[in-house]
Every structure is written in C-alpha cells, then in structure tokens.
Design goal:
Layout lengths: L6 E5 H16 L4 E5 L7 H9 L4 E4 L2 H9 L5 E4 L7 H7 L2 E4 L2 H13 L4 E6 L14 H9 L4 E7 L12 H18 L5 E3 L6 H6 L8 E4 L1 H5 L17 E14 L22 E7 L12 E2 L4 E5 L4 E4 L10 E5 L2 H9 L4 E5 L6 H6 L8
Parallel strand pairs: 1-16, 2-3, 2-9, 3-4, 4-5, 5-6, 6-7, 7-8
Antiparallel strand pairs: 1-10, 10-11, 10-15, 11-14, 12-15, 13-14
Bound molecules: pyridoxal-5'-phosphate (PLP).
Keywords: Isomerase, Pyridoxal phosphate
Protein name: Alanine racemase, N-terminal domain family
InterPro entries: Ala_racemase, Ala_racemase_N, PLP-binding_barrel
C-alpha cells in the first residue's frame, strides 16, 4: 500500500472506544451524548465510529458537513450547533435539530418548514456567563412564548455552552441555574423539554464531582471523543485514547548548518523580524509541512524533536542526534487546534487505520473501499 505524505493517520477503533467509554460514563447517570464532528469536517468514517460507540446524535457547526455525512449514508439525528440565519431553508431540509438564540432566525425556520411541509426542532441556548451564544436568562420566558406561537417549530430542549469564549467553567452553580430555568419554563408553559444539554468536553470535572446533576441529560462532545481529553485543564480522561490521530510528514532536507542566519536581516515571510540565538553548528532537518497545512504550535513530536521555525510549506527541526535522512518519516501528536487545521488542509491525506475487524464492514458500506481517502 502506497503511503501518502503528509498524512494524518486516524484510528477509527480508538475513536469508537472513546465514544463507547464516554457513553458508559455519562450514560450511567442518564446523560446522552451528541458526538461533535466539526473538528473532523464531518468525516463519515469517523462519525460512523462515534455512532458505533453509542452516541445518540451527531452535531456539527456547519451545514455543509451535515450534508456531506447524509450524502455518505450516515443515518442518525443531526444537530446544527451554530445558529443559522440565511441558511434557514437548508437547515429545515437537512437538519433535525438546530441550536437557536434569535427570534428572526426561528421565524425563517418556521417559514421554510411550512413551505417544505416539515417540522423543525430547536434547542434554545441560554447565556450563562461565557458570553458566546445564548438568550439571557431574564429574557428566556418571553423568548419561549414567541417561539410557541410559530408553526412547525418544536422546542425540544434548552442548552448552554461554556468554556469557549469567556473560559467560564461549568460548575455546580451554572448547571443548577440551567436546571432551574428548565423547571420554570416547563411549569410556566406546561411543556416537556426532552433535551437539557449542559455543555461540552469542559463538563467532565463538574460531572465527576457533582452529587446531583439536576435536569441535565445531554452533553455535546467533540474533543473528549476525538482526543480523549477534558477541556478545563486539558487532562487526559482515564481510560481514553489520546493519540487516535497522528500526523506524519517526510524529511526533504537534512544538513549540518550554522544556527545563525548570515547576511542582513529583514522581515521573514510573515512580516516579523526574526531574532536568533547562536547554538553553533547543528543538524537541521526540513519536513514538507507548513503553516498552510497546520497550526505549527500544536505539533508535539513523539521523539521530542524541537521545532525551530516554520514558513508556509516548510518546518525546520533541530535534528539533534536522530540521524534523520531525506525520505524519513516524522510523527506528531496534535492538540485540538492542530487537529482542526490538519483536517482542513487539502494537502494532508486522511488515512484510516482499521485496527479491529468490526469497523471494516462499516467503512465498506460507506463506499470507502480504499482506506486512503
Ligand atoms: C464545538 C462545540 C461543542 C463541542 O466542543 P468540545 O469542546 O469539542 O467538546 C459543543 N457545543 C457547541 C455549541 C459547539 O460549538
């Protein structure tokens, strides 16, 4: 089998294991999971692995990713994470549930739902301090009242999102607040809210330490499933795989050179005037990967190779005594930003590692006969 360079090796079985273990952990106290697919651009094989692991919904911020998954034959409940506006018609026709915070948008959804003779479900997002999306708690009751007058729109839940913009931690207090808002709305309008979505991969610590989880019965998890981490401290979650993704690039130059550039110093390719410290003569290695492909600061070398710098298409490494030669492979682990950028680069091939047999038939049904995409 020919191996492409650069490539991202993706272990579907590890992603499935992570999803399964998280479903068990959270399911133990009645919390269902949405597998969040935006960091992997809705890659159908990865999403299928999440579904095999037991997630009840697949959630993505981009309608294009959801349409890609549907076209690939993925069958599940799809959730749109980012509140839509001009895409309302596409949302109504290709998404089951969308997260919403603006009445004008929900009116658009209602309008197109009528035209297409469909019902659309929404989860209303509440602002609990992180200051990204959400209706302020004091406006919630009035907001719900307006939605209830719109035809073909069904409110199926309430949610909140923390630890994204403001870095606000999910804790006893804000989770309790969400539960209380749910009680208030259910009582006031005599409706039943099925999905109380308390947050994302940052909710792990709260969950582990909470004696009482209140009405919270759903979480939306991306990073925990893909990289095995919670996101308050970026600690590995015990028992999960943290290296399901591995970025591999090839050495295209390996030479002994001085560590100080010679000649007059001007701006580099990105408009900075660089400065250097003299480390003497050393082995310098260039790999065929650059800032156009990946967030370079996110790369973690398994061999502890130091990254000296990067331009659009080259990353320069301190070769130390690793004896790297042209054509050799260099491996990196990725954090979330690195995963997002690497999956988005059209130059990085996605290669699925089919470690266990169980996953192969699924890939076949997706018409991915070759593991190289
Ligand atoms: C991206 C996103 C998530 C998933 O976040 P992770 O930290 O990857 O778990 C959950 N909810 C919303 C609204 C999002 O946009």
């Amino acid at each position: 089998m020919k191996l492409f360079m650069p490539r991202i090796e993706i272990s579907l079985s590890q992603i499935r294991d992570n999803a399964r273990m998280l479903c068990e952990l959270y399911g133990h106290r009645g919390i269902s999971l949405m597998g969040v697919s935006k960091a992997v651009l809705g890659e159908p094989s990865i999403v299928e692995a999440m579904i095999q692991g037991g997630v009840k919904f697949i959630a993505d911020s981009r309608i294009e990713n959801i349409q890609k998954m549907k076209n690939a034959g993925i069958s599940t409940q799809f959730v749109l994470l980012r509140t839509p506006f001009s895409q309302a018609e596409a949302v109504v026709t290709s998404v089951d549930i969308s997260l919403n915070t603006e009445i004008e948008t929900i009116k658009q959804l209602s309008y197109y739902a009528k035209i297409h003779n469909r019902n659309h479900q929404i989860i209303v997002m509440v602002e609990l301090g992180d200051l990204r999306e959400g209706v302020l708690p004091g406006d919630l009751s009035q907001f719900i009242r307006k939605i209830l007058s719109l035809s073909r729109i069904k409110i199926v839940g309430i949610g909140c999102n923390l630890a994204c913009y403001g870095g606000v931690k999910p804790d006893k207090k804000n989770m309790h607040k969400l539960s209380e808002l749910v009680n208030g709305i259910q009582k006031e309008f005599q409706i039943n809210l099925e999905i109380i979505s308390g947050g994302n991969s940052a909710n792990y610590e709260w969950y582990k330490s909470a004696q009482y989880i209140g009405n919270i019965n759903n979480l939306r998890l991306g990073e925990s499933i893909l990289l095995g981490r919670e996101t308050v401290n970026r600690k590995a979650i015990p028992g999960l795989h943290t290296e399901a993704f591995k970025l591999v690039a090839e050495v295209i130059e390996s030479k002994t050179k001085p560590s100080l550039p010679f000649g007059e110093i001007c701006q580099d390719a990105f408009g900075n005037v660089p400065s250097f410290s003299d480390r003497g003569i050393s082995q310098r290695v260039i790999i065929a990967l650059g800032r156009q492909d990946v967030l370079v600061s996110s790369l973690k070398s398994k061999k502890k190779l130091e990254i000296l710098g990067a331009s659009s298409d080259h990353i320069i490494l301190d070769g130390k005594n690793h004896n790297l030669q042209v054509g050799d492979e260099v491996n990196f682990n990725l954090d979330y930003g690195g995963l997002l950028s690497a999956m988005t680069s059209p130059f990085i091939r996605k290669q699925f590692i089919l470690a266990t047999e169980a996953i192969i038939p699924v890939v076949k049904t997706l018409k991915m006969v070759s593991p190289i995409n």
